Amino acid sequence: MRPGVPPELRGGVIVAGAGVSGIGMANLLRDIGVAVLVADDRDPGRARAAAAGHRAVSTAEARAHFGEVGAVVTSPGWRPNSPLLVDASFASLPVLGDVEACYRLDRAGVFGPPRQWLVVTGTNGKTTTTGMLAAMMAQLGADTGKRARACGNIGVAVADALTAAERIDVLVAELSSFQLFWSDQLTPDAGVLLNLADDHLDWHGSFAHYAAAKARVLTATHAVAGVDDAHVRELVARTGRDDIVGFTLAEPGPGQVGVAGGRLVANLGGEPRDLASAEGIEPAGAAGVLDALAASAVALTQGAQPHHIQAALQAYRVEGHRGAVVHSSGGVDWVDNSKATNPHAADSALTGAGTVVWIAGGQLKGAAVEELVAAHAAQFRAVALLGVDRGVLRGAVEKLAPHVPLFVSDATDPERAMAEVVDFAASQAQPGDTVLLAPAAASLDMFPGMSARGNAFAAAAVRHS
Prior knowledge:
Blueprint: H1 7-10, E1 13-16, H2 20-31, E2 36-39, H3 43-51, E3 55-57, H4 59-62, E4 71-74, H5 83-90, E5 95-97, H6 98-107, E6 116-121, H7 126-144, E7 148-152, H8 158-162, E8 170-174, H9 177-181, E9 190-193, H10 201-204, H11 207-215, E10 222-226, H12 230-239, E11 245-247, E12 256-260, E13 263-267, E14 273-277, H13 286-301, H14 306-315, E15 324-329, E16 332-336, H15 343-350, E17 356-360, H16 370-376, E18 380-385, H17 390-400, E19 406-408, H18 414-428, E20 434-437, H19 450-461
Parallel strand pairs: 1-2, 1-4, 2-3, 4-5, 6-8, 6-9, 7-8, 9-10, 10-11, 11-12, 16-20, 17-18, 17-20, 18-19
Antiparallel strand pairs: 12-13, 13-14, 15-16
Helix pairs in contact: 7-13, 7-14, 18-19
């Protein structure tokens, strides 16, 4: 066994789940000499584990082995009330998430000197902020020699980042509420909580439990928080810390990073420091600026300088379906934000976007939309709706923006529905407007996923020139 393995992992581990995350974790543990048993109730899962060279059993069979192991390592999707995990806790076995296990192994020096851990979480904007921060740390790394990489739910898995052939010194990790829930010792060198809105309540059981999981990132040595969000402000107050850096779209007060005179500015002691232009950030609008502020605040805690931040933001391009301009013609930009799968994300996409033809609809999953429509009614040149819950959105628009031209596609074929709403949008948009796909809803009622929905939008948009 490799030196430094923590005591709770030395005696062997049950890995709960034989998906990509579970098999990856099982492989990592085996490679450092830890005995592994994979538990999965699906025949294909056990077959995958066996093909990877692991002993594989059902969850019922795994219980008989509790006395032979020192811990259970779970994939993030397993709920807290999963019987195997509940029974493990009753048997006084530690239950660790895969990211938590990686953190403990790294901090113990199993893979060499411990890395810097920079963690990004929140309901929306995680991927963009993580990408921006990784770019800033790469700019800094060009001067320090430290190699940075986005990981977690973007880029590579944390386990793969730890074991990469070319050492990665700075892990810029996008983590979900699931991963944070299963992490009790994870204390990042820096962490940021972007925002909070209802999400994954079926997994956590309540918004309070969801928020508490996200708030674990505020235990970081250097913590950053989106103080424009009331829920985040409340969680910051509960920490009792007075050293948490806030980021805001307003002019920054002491201990904050914000916007002044069209510039990103840090007010973190001494004279305020100019960081970068707030113009030209991708994705466009307030959401992109907020993500840039969050990334900048974290980067500053790690020694980045304004020129590192400016260079990173100038070069950064958003991941697909997160606010990219997919077509421009006749003075109209067509923006794909198919990733805006809930009203909170759609609100971020609409804020600061100017006059828009808004394309929305899909599976609302019970989410309320009246507050969203009321907040942005003055921006709407027109609205086009599609998807299974189009009627809910239609009711909100007719009630709160009754004078806005409205089109509703009743087509059930996804390509036809998208073509119809895009044709309507093209007929309504005027030079200087943005046609914005920000559905406020999930996509699986009509599309294989949000990427397919965004691709359909882009394909339909380019036909209008």
